[in-house]
Amino acid sequence: MEEKSLFWKNSLKHGLIVGLVILIYSVLLYVLELNLIQALGYVVYVILFAGFILGTKAFRDNNLNGNISYGRAFGYSIVILLVASIISSIYNYLLVTVIDPDIVEKIMALGEEKMLEKGLTDDQIEMAQSMQKKFMSPVFMSIMAFIGTMFFGTIIALITSAIVKKEGDPYQEAMQDIEE
Prior knowledge:
Helix content is 83%, strand content 0%. The radius of gyration is 21 Å and the shape is elongated. The chain starts with a helix and ends with a helix. The longest helix is centred in the N-terminal third of the chain and has 30 residues. The chain is mostly helical. The protein has eight helices and no strands. It has one domain. Helix 3 crosses helix 4.
C-alpha cells in the first residue's frame, strides 16, 4: 500500500513541476510576443519528454531500488501528463478569456494571412474563417488543447517508458531474499 501512495505522491509532484515549467514557458512566450509562432509551441513536447524521463527515473531510482516495469513507467508518465495538461489547459482558458481576449482575432488574422500566401480566393478564405470561428470559443479551444497534449504526450510517454524501463534480475532478487 505504501508503494501506491508513493507512486501517486511522486507522480503528482512531478506533474505539478512539469506543468509549472510549461506554464512559465507559455507565459514567457506571451510576454515576448512569440506565442503565435507555431514552431515554438512544439517545445512543450520537449519539456514533456524531459519531464517524463527525469520524473520517472527519479521515482525508479529513489523508490523502486532502480527497477521499474514498462507499464509502471508508462502509468507514472501518464499521471505527470494529466496534471501538466490540466495546468496548461487552465492557462489557455485564462489567456483567451482574461489575459488577452483579442487573441482569437490575432489567430484568425494569422490564419487569413497563411491562406492568402497559399493563393486561396477571398470566397474560400471567408468560408474557411466562418468555419474556423465556430471552433474558437475559449472552452472548445481549451478542451482541444487538452486533448492534443494528451494525445501527443501519450505517444511521448510510450517512448520514454521504454527508455526508463529497467527490470531487475529475478535470480539475483531471489538470492537476496534467501540471504536475508
